[in-house]
Amino acid sequence: MRKFALAVAAASMTAPAFAEELVTRDILSEEPLSGVEGRVVIVSKLTLKPGGRIPLHIHPGDEHAVMIVGGAALMPNGKEVSLPAGTPMFFPAGQVHGGVTNQGDTDIEIVTTHILRADQPFQTLAE
Predict the structure, then answer these.
(1) What domain range includes position 14?
(2) What's the pTM?
(3) Pairing mode, if any, of strands 101-102 and 71-74?
(4) Fewest CB within 10 angstroms: 6, 7, 23, 37, which?
(5) Alpha-carbon dihedral of residues 110, 111, 117, 118, nearest 10 degrees?
(6) Distance between CA 88 and CA 1 in Å, rounded?
(7) What DSSP state is assigned to residue 53?
(8) Please, what are the averages of pLDDT over each run of 10 residues along the chain (127 residues)?
């Protein structure tokens, strides 16, 4: 299993060292997409610690996600919402998403599945 902080994954992002630990992604599986040359499927677990924020970003392919451990979150529009466990999410290729901050006092966990072009970066910041 590979683990990296989102802040580290984006070379253009600068943040204090402690911020790197607030949002982490554990790669659970990374395999070629059967029957489709040049595509890869990446399954990972994203963890937002209290105060952690997912930066606005895009992916070069579709992202499907499910909240495993939900919590209170501050959305990019400033609205605080509850994201319960079991909530499904879908972000098509190129759609800007993220900007969500964990407002609670416990971790939020999300399992994500990305279907990406193998020759492109996992994500690009959009802020």
Answers:
(1) 2-125
(2) 0.81
(3) antiparallel
(4) 37
(5) 110
(6) 24
(7) B
(8) 42 40 95 96 97 96 98 96 97 96 97 96 92
